[in-house]
Amino acid sequence: MSSTAVQAREVTLWRNAVVVAYAASGLAFASWVSRLPAIRDGLNLTPGTVGLLLLCMTAGSFLSVSASGLIVLRLGSRRTIRSGCLMVGCGLVLAGFGTSVLSSPVAVAAGLAVVGLGTASWNTASNVEGAAVERAMGWHIMPRLHGSFSLGTVAGAGLGAWAAGAGVPVLWHLAAAGLVVAGSVTTAARWFRADVTPAERTAPYRPDNFEDPSTGPLPVIRAGNGGGGAPLDNKRKIAQAWRDRRTLLLGVMVLGLALAEGAAGDWVALALADGHHQSDAAGAAGYGLFVTFMTIGRFAGTVVLDRFGRVPVMRWCSAMAVVGLALFVFAPAPWLAYAALAVWGLGASLGFPVGMSAAADDPAKAAARVSVVSTIGYGAFLCGPPLLGLLAEHVGILHSLLAVMAVLVVSFLLSPVARKLP
């Protein structure tokens, strides 16, 4: 086998390993979310107490994503992902044990907090690893990586629905999910390469140049220091990233699209039920429609980005999200509201993937800048929907979504910051 073919095989293994990391993250998320009704019933919780449980998870996630840049720079993306998935696995087991054995809301809250701590740093490191393999391949794959996360959530939700219907105890379900997540990701991590010392290259790897003798050595980019380096230097890199104008503007651009995605997850079903007078089942189906089209957008995004580039695509995505949201809020008939969800889902699909790719344009500063954009984006994703709930108390659920539309207009105006660095 020629050296070029070996390099191509290594890059393919690398890409597949990163796909596993994204899909497993989605599986973990959907596993505990799908059992929330069982957790609520098993512990006899009120809606307010369930909210406090979710707040523990949100607090863990935000704390972790805020420190994720330092963590990745200190440990490297491979070790961060491995430690993160192990934390998530342990957190799922603890949440299940707290539900089925201890009947303790405190234990469940602690488990979800551990899940949040592990997930956020894991996701930031996955974005660093994904951006590195994207550079190595020479074409856009970040949308499909995030699409793998979406597929993982679909699989996790389906398995959760089956487990609930079959009467599987929460402990056994979450313990099995935790073992699968931790085992698959720790195994896949052996093929991660973003922490390896970079090699010079003369041409990017592409599937159509396996036998091209001009292709240089396997291009890999050092994302972290793999456990070495000075903590002060790492803190300086993070501080510089927070002062970098382009990075902050990328974060604000992602903020609008992340808020559009998060708001749909928390409020679409209720908005359909209360605002458009649909049944609870129809409301859930509406969110399923949104997720389906968002997944389609992510898998189609690779082709679209390669053909048109980041800036035009982000303009169209932001515009579609604005139009879809407006149609959803003001739809005179339910069928139009469902059609609007498809447009909204397509529009929101590429915000995170493109933002992560753009933040990682400079390999030497990728970890710090990705962590900044992730913190802003995840902050909007996690904290925005609860704030919409407060606004909905005064103007109603449907009209509260107009606040998201206003932020999306800002994302549209900031689309040029996604332009690839020379």
TrEMBL record:
Keywords, in A-Z order: Membrane, Transmembrane, Transmembrane helix
GO cellular component: membrane
Membrane-spanning ranges: 12-32, 52-73, 85-102, 108-125, 145-164, 170-192, 247-269, 281-301, 313-331, 337-360, 372-391, 397-418
Localization of this protein: Membrane
Topology of the protein relative to the lipid bilayer: Multi-pass membrane protein
GO molecular function terms noted in the UniProt entry: transmembrane transporter activity
Pfam families in the cross-refs: MFS_1
Name used for this protein in its record: Putative major facilitator superfamily transporter
Organism: Arthrobacter globiformis (strain ATCC 8010 / DSM 20124 / JCM 1332 / NBRC 12137 / NCIMB 8907 / NRRL B-2979 / 168)
High-level lineage: Bacteria, Bacillati, Actinomycetota, Actinomycetes, Micrococcales
